Amino acid sequence: MTIPSLFMLTLAASAIQAQTTAPVWELGRNPVSPNGTTGQVEVVNGAVRLDGSNVFAVPASVLGAQNDYTIEFEVKRPAGTKPGCGIVLVSNTDEKSKAGFALKYFPPQYNACWLFCNGYQTCEQRGFLGDAFTKLTFVVKDKRMTLFRNGLLLALTDAVKPSDRPLVFGGSASAARPPQAYELRNIRIYDRPVFPTGFDRSAERMRNFSGDQYFMQRAEIKDPALPRILVIGDSISMGYRGFIAEHFKGKAYVDYWVGGGTDDMEGEKASGRSAWKGVLSNGPYDVVTWNSMALHAWPKPERCPEATYAARMTRAVEFITNNAPDSKFIWVRTTPWRTTPTAGRPTLYTAENERIIRFNRMTDEIMAHDKIPEVDLYGLCETKLGTVAEGSQDAVHWNAEVARLMAAEIIKEIEKVLSARK
Q1: Do 182 and 217 lie in a common domain?
Q2: Total structural domains in the chain?
Q3: Which domain covers residue 54, as residue numbers?
Q4: In this structure, which long-range contacts are made by residues 337-344, counting pairs with CB atoms below 8 Å and at least 24 apart in sequence?
Q5: 199 lies in a domain?
Q6: Could you tell me if residue 14 is inside a domain?
Q7: Is 53 within a domain?
Q8: Interval 382-393: pLDDT, tens
Q9: Residue 113 included in any domain
Q10: Which of 260, 348, 360, 412 has the fewest CB within 10 Å, making it most exposed?
Q11: 48: pLDDT strictly greater than 50
């Protein structure tokens, strides 16, 4: 038998398995318990309308020991663009014991979902629902969850702790807004993992980990002898971090955190301190490259006062490095803020960019004092203004080719550190 024929046979077998696996609970076939119902819940032709004010529940027992199970359903967002409430699509979260999971949806203009595991937000996905029905599939294998949208991988999580709470559908995720109706149909629950046809479970992928004040992505560690790298930053880092991971594939593991802010770190219970502690506890890391979410903070005087910045950043660097004494930190200088002309080329003559220049200089002094090397992405971007389209209304982001160049500069500094540690 040829390899292509064997592959097609495997896909066919997977499809047959998915079709013949009987659900242990199905909307329209199994009754909805009145004990877990609030508001008016009516099942019509295997579908139910939920508007944020009504809820129905399925007993926790349908998930068994919660080591292996599958939940699938289809959902359609309300028609039109009138603002209204978000909805809890599904949840068995136990906030007290930090167990279970939840998926919450927030409507347009936001149109995003938040996935929670063990009481903490684990990931966010924008552009989540379209005008047609969207199929969502939650597959849990060995307590670890894989979320699919229309059969395509959306997120992988760490282990979800078993919860004794019932599985609920409905309820408001944004109670301050007026109700609006969402239609859910074809809700089915299986007592085993049922992966979508063709999904390759053996491929290398990052998993979402979360805790108090943070969520991040971690690579699966198969060879503990390889170095570990943590890339931290704002949306600019989202452009270059994939190139870094690609470069070090097979040579080091690259984790990623969209975060790293240092503007809320005063006091032992500060959210910034909790976030940094949690993220660094996923190490130890050989190298940490970071930028403190600067484009979200530095141009905003109300969020990041210039008069107190140097002192606060100095304390933040001390706290971070003390919590990871065996890691080598590399500071990534903040990139520019451009003008957004309706015609003609953007320039760097903005009040926001003048603040970025001053804050970069203050940070340079702090990093020099603590002997933390820097990567000058600001200087790189200064030379790439010609890559920005005329009339662009995006003041901060850069195209993929510039992001690749950013990654190359960061990779050079990482490799210096790794070579010195051999």
Answers
A1: no
A2: 2
A3: 22-190
A4: 337/295, 337/299, 337/395, 337/396, 338/385, 338/388, 338/392, 338/395, 338/396, 339/395, 340/392, 340/393, 340/394, 340/395, 341/390, 341/391, 342/391, 343/390, 343/391, 344/390, 344/391
A5: no
A6: no
A7: yes
A8: 999 999 999 999
A9: yes
A10: 412
A11: yes
Do 180 and 216 belong to one domain?
Answer: no
How much is the pTM?
0.86
C-beta separation of 188 from 26 below 8 A = yes
Q: 228 and 166: one domain?
A: no
Per-residue tokens: 181? 């109706």
Same domain, 147 and 268: no
Q: Report the pLDDT averaged over residues 135-150.
A: 97
Do residues 216 and 181 both lie within one domain?
no
| Contact present, 143 and 67 (Cβ < 8 Å) | yes
Of 94, 52, 186, 88, nearest in space to 41 by CA: 52
What six digits make up the tokens of 182?
Answer: 């969402």
Residue found under tokens 């080329």: 345
CA atoms within 13 A on the CB side of 39: 16
On whether both 170 and 53 belong to a single domain, the answer is: yes
